[in-house]
Design goal:
The protein has about 290 residues and is of the alpha/beta class. Helices cover about 35% and strands about 20% of the residues.
């Protein structure tokens, strides 16, 4: 509740763009999703941007909104000036931010989808009150982001924290980035399927143990370098493997993160649930408002 005489914060528009769906929502500052609508990315085809604009106009027409926050699959240039989502072939070097500003007249802030999820984890999820932490998605691919001293790390190109490209198996499998033995090449959904010949949900106990251990090695290595004690993980592979994934990965992280200033690294479930992606987009907007 707002103090007497203080107007409630204006909600924002949030836009989450993934490989299968694009979702638009009006979100309040406390993370309440007032309304939402979505479209199928593949069905929209070359009219994807036009379809997104129609959803934005539909949702903002009912409420005053402060700004537009966007979470988008990558890769992208800094600030989303140009995006080329791997699963959206009609968008290559697509000038997303400028086109959204032109279409809406709003201030537009854009982040990568996993980086936006890290912001939401701190604002609405399991990382509330945590000053420094890692955030990961272990799903078809492996993505990550790092929050240090309450601030999302950007790096020169805006891609800092990409835990999927920590080397965990020297000389291992070829990764999509061109290197060998990256975490994504060894522990992602597509890697598990390539290794076993079947989808990750059917992986045997040995494969599940190996996957969790490799995730733990990556987290433990970075924790020793960057001085954080908690990593929050979402994604169909990690969550689908259940409690054993978090027990095994935490043990592997602690075996590597033995330097004295660490207090016992833990790998925990994300606390965001199914609303995580759209709350991530909203968190991008709120960060821009601050």
């Amino acid at each position: 509740m707002n103090p007497p005489g203080v107007a409630p914060a204006i909600p924002c528009l949030a836009l989450d763009i993934g490989g299968t769906k694009a979702e638009v929502a009006v979100v309040t500052r406390d993370g309440t999703v007032l309304r939402r609508s979505r479209l199928d990315v593949k069905r929209a085809g070359e009219r994807l941007f036009e379809g997104i604009v129609e959803l934005l106009e539909l949702e903002r027409g009912r409420d005053e909104v402060s700004s537009l926050g966007v979470a988008c699959a990558g890769p992208m240039t800094l600030g989303g000036e140009s995006v080329s989502p791997l699963n959206i072939p009609v968008w290559r070097d697509f000038a997303l931010r400028d086109r959204l500003v032109e279409a809406t007249g709003l201030r537009v802030d854009i982040e990568g989808d996993v980086r936006a999820l890290a912001l939401a984890e701190g604002a609405f999820g399991a990382a509330r009150g945590v000053n420094s932490y890692a955030s990961m998605v272990v799903s078809t691919g492996v993505g990550g982001a790092i929050v240090m001293d309450g601030r999302l790390l950007d790096g020169d190109s805006g891609n800092a924290g990409h835990l999927g490209h920590v080397n965990v198996v020297p000389g291992g499998r070829l990764c999509s980035c061109g290197s060998l033995g990256c975490l994504e090449a060894e522990a992602s959904g597509w890697a598990i399927e390539a290794l076993t010949g079947q989808p990750a949900q059917f992986a045997d106990e040995a494969t599940r143990h190996r996957t969790a251990s490799l995730v733990g090695r990556a987290v433990g290595t970075l924790a020793s370098v960057l001085d954080f004690n908690l990593c929050f993980v979402a994604g169909s592979v990690a969550l689908g493997f259940g409690d054993d994934f978090f027990v095994t990965s935490t043990k592997a992280a602690q075996e590597l993160a033995t330097i004295g200033f660490l207090r016992g690294v833990e790998i925990r479930r994300s606390g965001l649930g199914s609303d995580g992606p759209i709350l991530g987009a909203a968190s991008v907007a709120w960060r821009g408002d601050s």
